[in-house]
Design a protein that fits this description.
The protein has 22 helices and 31 strands. About 30% of the residues lie in helices and about 25% in strands. Helix 5 (about 140-150) packs across helix 7 and helix 18 packs antiparallel against helix 20 (about 615-630). The protein is α/β, with parallel strands linked by helices. The two termini are about 55 Å apart. It folds into five domains: about 10-110, GIY-YIG endonuclease; about 120-185, no CATH class; about 200-290 and about 300-380, 3-Layer(aba) Sandwich (Rossmann fold), CATH 3.40.50.300; about 390-430 and about 490-625, Rossmann fold (3-Layer(aba) Sandwich); about 635-725, Ribosomal protein S10 (Alpha-Beta Plaits, 2-Layer Sandwich), CATH 3.30.70.600. Strand 3 (about 40-45) and strand 4 (about 45-55) form a beta hairpin. A seven-stranded parallel β-sheet has the order 11-12-10-13-14-9-15, sandwiched between helices. It has a six-stranded parallel β-sheet with strand order 16-26-25-17-24-23, sandwiched between helices. The structure holds zinc ion (2 copies). The structure holds a DNA duplex. It catalyses: Couples ATP hydrolysis with the unwinding of duplex DNA by translocating in the 3'-5' direction; ATP + H2O = ADP + phosphate + H(+).
Length: about 725
DNA sequence: TTTAGCCGTCGG
DNA sequence: CGACGGCTAAAA
């Protein structure tokens, strides 16, 4: 009889093991349903872990003696009912252990058992003495400017930092004289000066109205608008309406989109403090923002992929900017898709989910075309702006010197002569992608990967896949020839060539090497100034900072992307081209886009650049996907595996293939080597599963996942299931 | 995934 | 005989 009494805690631990672990409650604590969702500290093997109580149950008679949990760490559940349900759904959908999913959803300090942080924020206001003394402060000084600002109302430290990065200096000067004082508050601080909203165009107005009409219910909406059509103003107006109803808003942006400039824009336009969650914050700051949302103190949170796990107890609206962006899919561990999880949360929460993009993903477009998503179109650039003129440069008959043809150099020179700015785009960093022997055809390959090494500078060969680094050999290792030549041009080579040709204008290279830190990108843009200048770089330049003087976009080459085997490569390339091209031109200055290619007749380029643009491309690509049985017309799961020995790898995938036999009508494709069969010394292979029915695939995965865990052959193999993979690499 | 523990080999 | 490496089962 006592065996039937629910007396054990079923705990989700942060491990990749797909099961829960049973513990007795700590001494003096009764096992009650009220403990579900709270963190507990438990001994596990020889170490101590922090887990979350996932349920309360009767003890399993088959189990041996249970350990006692050390302590319950929370007074209430960390996740509310909605977040808890959404996380459980995510664990099932993307096939990941619940404890691992819970751990991913928590900011570091909470994951490690720290108490919820204090969310009170420091607010500075003028003292009475300060108010009196302000007019007497020396005019034109920073303390005077700060005092004037505070006279309009108290400000929190975020607002002061937005005003000036060096806000502490004048503040300290005022504080020393007793003119300002610090308070602690969890309330939003009113009185932050706000930029008035611009007048919206008719299409923007319609879009805002469409979103506002759906506040209070689940509604997926696609905001489909070209670069410069004013999507952000639509977000801001919708968020204001959401705030006015007393609800919270969550905004997801791609990693690269969360610039200080973008944050400032949200902060200045909205009547409440805007909290940010991004990789540049300390763990403590992330925990504070998360907790402030959980307590309802924060009303607007803007963040990157992992911000989708933020509690939204008073949710009103979720916005996903650049919804097509691949960075929303986590590429290791718990391989969730933030956009898709946001849609599920929106449905559970009963709030609209606004998906914005100039180049919507084919999945989202397909939903919009089928009427499942409301489709809001902003077809014109806001204001007077006109679309840029596109030149496709056939370089088959053109000599390329350092990757640049004569007509392109001439176009850049003309642009600079007008005092305008040029962006030269090339999606390969380094000096040259290949180092080739002119005499025997040998090229420098990585010893641990099936991939060529990239030449960096003049003397270094670098593998972009495993990080291997070595010196350029003095002569060809195969034929002793001295004729080793860099083949092709990366950003570094373009930079040098442009610097030599245009020595008098500022030139900035933007790629992973030059832009390590968070603020480096902003510094680069500042270094460019607002006169004539050149930016060279990779897709880091595709969005971000607004550059009004930029009128010429030169795409040095994207030919290597035209023939990729991956089913999503075309979509990616089209999105990238449209994004980069969209940077050319503004209201008064018409932009031009130059594309150098050896394949001017490639269907993708014809349709995209000289035909009907992105939507015409998308229609063709969707037809191809339908014919080939790829998403959105089928749902995929990729079983990836890697091992040091080929035999172990093959044996594992052969077993996995057998396990997937005839199940639920899901198509199992024969195991095959990965597109890069060897990487960092490890052999890689994969098996694809596909089904037109998402439910059938999910049913198979529910059976397959535990069986894979139980396989003997799994031992020497690292494997993972990737549900809805963004690429098959 | 991590790790304790078992067993077999090998050097001292 | 004890150290070490490789393999396996178990972690509640
Ligand atoms: Zn050679
Ligand atoms: Zn390598």
């Amino acid at each position: 009889m006592p065996d039937r009494v629910p007396s054990v805690l079923r705990v989700a631990l942060p491990l990749p093991l797909p099961r829960l672990f049973d513990y007795l409650p700590p001494r003096g604590v009764a096992a009650s349903a009220a403990l579900v969702g709270r963190r507990v500290r438990v001994g596990f093997g020889s170490k101590v872990l922090v887990g979350i109580v996932a349920g309360i149950d009767a003890p399993d008679p088959a189990a041996g003696t249970l350990r006692e949990a050390d302590a319950v760490l929370d007074a209430t559940a960390l996740f509310d009912a909605e977040l808890d349900a959404s996380l459980r759904w995510a664990a099932g959908y993307w096939q990941r252990a619940l404890g691992d999913v819970f751990a991913t959803a928590l900011p570091g300090p909470l994951r490690h058992g720290e108490p919820l942080p204090d969310t009170a924020r420091a607010v500075w206001r003028l003292t009475e003495a300060g108010a009196t003394a302000t007019p007497a402060l020396r005019a034109g000084t920073r303390p005077r400017a700060l005092a004037e600002r505070l006279r309009a109302g108290a400000q929190d430290e975020d607002a002061l930092a937005a005003w000036s990065p060096q806000w502490r200096t004048p503040l300290r000067s005022l504080a020393r004289r007793g003119l300002v004082e610090r308070l602690w508050t969890t309330q939003p601080v009113p009185g932050t000066p706000r930029t008035p909203p611009p007048v919206l165009g008719a299409a923007q107005r319609r879009a805002v109205d469409a979103v506002c009409a759906r506040l209070g219910e689940f509604a997926p909406l696609l905001l489909d608008g070209v670069t410069g059509s004013g999507k952000t103003e639509v977000y801001l107006a919708a968020i204001e309406a959401c705030l006015a109803q007393g609800r919270q808003a969550l905004v997801l942006v791609p990693e690269i989109g969360l610039t200080p400039q973008a944050l400032r824009r949200y902060g200045e336009r909205l009547p409440v403090p805007v909290h940010a969650l991004h990789s540049g914050l300390s763990e403590g700051e992330r925990a504070r923002a998360w907790t402030a949302m959980a307590r309802g103190e924060a009303r607007v949170l803007i963040g990157t992929r992992s911000a989708v796990f933020t509690p939204l107890p008073q949710a009103g609206l979720i916005v996903i900017d650049e919804e097509h962006d691949a960075s929303y899919k986590q590429q290791d561990g718990f391989r969730y898709h933030a956009r898709d999880l946001a849609l599920v949360r929106g449905k559970t929460l009963g709030v609209p989910v606004l998906l914005g993009s100039a180049t919507p993903s084919l999945e989202t477009l397909h939903h919009a075309m089928g009427g499942r998503y409301a489709w809001l179109r902003l077809s014109e650039r806001a204001g007077e702006a006109i679309a840029p003129q596109v030149h496709v440069l056939d370089v088959r008959a053109q000599p390329l010197v350092d990757g640049l043809s004569r007509p392109l150099r001439a176009a850049i020179a003309a642009c600079l002569a007008r005092g305008e700015q040029a962006l030269v785009f090339r999606n390969r960093r380094g000096f040259a992608p290949v180092l080739l022997c002119h005499d025997c055809g040998w090229h420098a390959d990585c010893e641990r990967c099936d991939s060529a090494m990239t030449l960096h500078g003049r003397h270094t060969l670098l593998c972009h896949h495993c990080g291997a680094r070595r010196r350029v050999p003095p002569a060809c290792p195969q034929c002793d020839s001295l004729g080793l030549v860099p083949q092709g041009a990366g950003t570094e080579r373009l930079e040098q060539a442009l610097a030599a040709e245009f020595p008098d204008v500022p030139l900035v290279r933007v790629d992973r090497e030059t832009t390590q830190h968070r603020d480096a990108l902003e510094k680069h843009f500042a270094a460019l100034g607002d006169g004539a200048g050149i930016l060279v770089g990779t897709q880091m330049l595709a969005k971000g900072h607004d550059l009004p003087r930029l009128t010429l976009v030169a795409i040095a080459s994207i030919d290597d992307g035209l023939f990729s085997a991956d089913f999503r490569a075309g979509e990616r390339l089209a999105q990238l081209l449209i994004q980069v091209a969209g940077r050319a031109g503004r209201a008064a200055l018409r932009g031009a886009v130059w594309l150098q290619t050896h394949h001017p007749d490639h269907p993708l380029l014809r349709t995209l650049l000289t035909g009907g643009g992105y939507h015409a491309f998308a229609a063709e690509a969707l037809a191809e996907r339908r014919a080939a049985g790829f998403p959105p017309f089928a749902h995929l799961c990729l079983l990836r595996a890697e091992a040091t020995g080929q035999a172990e790898l093959d044996a594992f995938l052969a077993e996995a293939f057998a396990l997937a036999e005839n199940a639920f009508g899901v198509t199992r494709h024969a195991p095959m080597p990965a597109p890069m069969p060897r990487r960092a010394g490890r052999l890689r292979a994969q098996m694809l599963l596909s089904s037109p029915q998402r439910g059938a695939l999910q049913a198979l995965l529910r059976e397959l996942f535990p069986r894979l865990h139980a396989l003997r052959e799994r031992k020497k193999v690292r494997w993972s299931l990737d549900v809805d993979p963004v690429d098959l690499y």
